[in-house]
Design goal:
The protein contains eleven helices and eleven strands. By secondary structure, it is of the alpha/beta class. The two termini are 62 Å apart. The mean pLDDT is 86.
Length: 306
């Protein structure tokens, strides 16, 4: 015999599970005589007895037990395959709300959002720009993309890499400076500086300026990183800026190496109750991949966009 039909395995398993021909017939939705005939024919073809007939019912012989175990494994494999197909057919759809700030949106995230839309055209993105922490548990947003060293303990996610800062000035004011050849930091202390506002004093780069530069030499304070970048570009003063932004501005020049003391982590965050959502999982996975492609730009080791 070259092969045993799969239905024969189902037959043996049904008899083994119910210990009777009547029970097997009910399980297979056939009549008793059909089960009896098929079992007799199968044992004849195999040349071995699969069941011993007792008053208590049909008991497996060693050969029958081996066949029943194989049938059970086949059942498990078929069920696992069906579940896999079902999972693949669940194409994420609907709306996904992502919160971030204007700086990350303009200089980093729009290509990531575009890549996500190409990969998942059935998911609509709702982007909420704010520097405030939204309540993800109340669905103010599904995902937060933040530059921070202390993500909220109520959220879960992954740290992509460090977002590095360096001190920058207007290139026309420092024609002698090239990347890798920087002025002495002490000589910069007498220059005019720009800084983020006091309300952002928790940012390390802000503390650096406020601790080392006299108040009278801070020409302007502003509460957005984009505004701070514009101030440096206009020549109002020098100051620390994220490399991600400043390195994409040809009118700016580094006046220092990236300072590890300024760095903050770039995080993808969501609420624990949302992390298994197909939409959320799809975004987290794709965004992490796309952001890692831009890691050198974020960390300040590459000065041109991906």
């Amino acid at each position: 015999m070259n092969s045993i039909p799969w239905d024969d395995f189902r037959l043996v398993k049904a008899i083994a599970d119910t210990k009777s021909l009547t029970g097997a017939a009910a399980a297979l939705n056939v009549n008793h005589s059909t089960v009896f005939r098929r079992l007799t024919d199968l044992e004849k073809r195999l040349g071995t007895v699969l069941f011993e007939r007792h008053r208590s019912g049909y008991a497996l012989t060693p050969a029958g037990d081996e066949m029943a175990q194989l049938a059970a494994r086949m059942d498990d494999d078929v069920e696992a395959f069906a579940l896999k197909l079902a999972g693949q057919s669940l194409i994420p759809t609907g709306e996904l709300r992502v919160t971030t700030n204007d700086t990350l949106l303009v200089y980093l995230l729009m290509p990531v959002f575009a890549a996500f839309r190409r990969a998942y055209p059935t998911i609509n993105l709702d982007i909420v720009l704010t520097n405030q922490t939204l309540n993800l548990s109340k669905r103010d947003a599904d995902i937060a993309i933040r530059a921070t060293d202390s993500p909220p303990e109520t959220l879960v996610g992954r740290r992509i890499c460090g977002l590095n800062w360096a001190i920058y000035g207007r290139k026309s004011d420092y024609p002698e400076v090239t990347n890798g050849t920087y002025p002495d930091l002490d000589s910069l202390a007498a220059k005019l500086w720009v800084s983020l506002g006091d309300q952002l004093g928790h940012i390390r780069a802000v503390r650096y300026v406020h601790e080392r530069v006299p108040e009278g030499q801070i020409a302007i304070k502003i509460n957005t990183v984009l505004g701070l970048t514009e101030a440096v570009e206009e020549g109002i003063g020098i100051g620390p800026l994220p490399c991600l932004i400043a390195d994409q501005r040809p009118t700016l020049v580094r006046l220092s190496d990236p300072n590890p003391d300024f760095a903050t982590g770039l995080w993808l965050l969501t609420h624990p109750d949302l992390k298994s959502s197909p939409r959320v999982r799809a975004f987290l996975d794709l965004a992490a991949t796309e952001l890692m492609k831009r890691r050198a730009l974020i960390e300040g080791t590459r000065t041109t966009p991906v």
